[in-house]
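Z., the sequence and structure:
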Amino acid sequence: MSLVIDFAGKVVAVTGGGRGVGRGVVDAFLDAGAEVEFCGRSEPDGVPERDGRRASFRPVDVRDAAQNEAWIRDVAERHGRLDVLVNNVGGSPFGRFEAGSPRYFQAITEINFLSAAVATRAAFEPLRAAKGSVVNITSISARRPSPGTAVYGAAKAALESLTRSLAVEWAPEIRVNAVSSGLVHTESAADHYGTPEQYAEIARTIPRGRLADPAELGAVCVVLASPLSAHLTGAVIPVDGGGEWPAFLAHTPNADIVRQADRLPDSGGTPS
């Protein structure tokens, strides 16, 4: 098996590829030689290109099933194929669960789970013809308590469950995997993580000592969709720098040794 990843002649669709993690995914597949189509609700700040291949953007609200399905069909029809679908769109503001309205719960579920389910269903036929793959972007919030974003965490857990189920239901023609994202440094990092001092403290709760770069998640998506992962399906790959330091370590007899390496917050806490 060749260890060279080459997506020349392959078509990749990415939801929410205009910024943040999605932009990292778009850039990574362009670097790998793919023809990349991406969508979003607002015009991106520039459309990337590589060696004369320019990514194509389409304004789409993926919460609208009709728009979502129409975009997938259009991509497949214009190119005559679809090899990879990356369901990246997602997110949630912080807020207490009891303060959320039913409409708010529905909106968070639509953006983080149902949009991916709709896009994946719409992509079934072209992906089956290409023996392609789906990569879902999930979150560490799917696997650990997520106070302040409880519905978001639940929706991402649903997406991980869908990943594992479709990997079996659609085998052997289509592979379905997921990337579980930890904390990521994006354009909106300050809105999520606060001042530079707070940001630094949060970074110290990660064993690798920093937040991920969107390009790092994009690279994992490329590997998962490539022939190098030909027998990998139903997997949820964490890209989180080692997760989060267990709070109890701050209170053990060896806590000072850990702190001397500047690897454990004095408080012993981890952000939600």
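The CA atoms of residues 120 and 222 lie 18 Å apart. The first strand starts at residue 11 and ends at 15.

Let me know what you think.
H.
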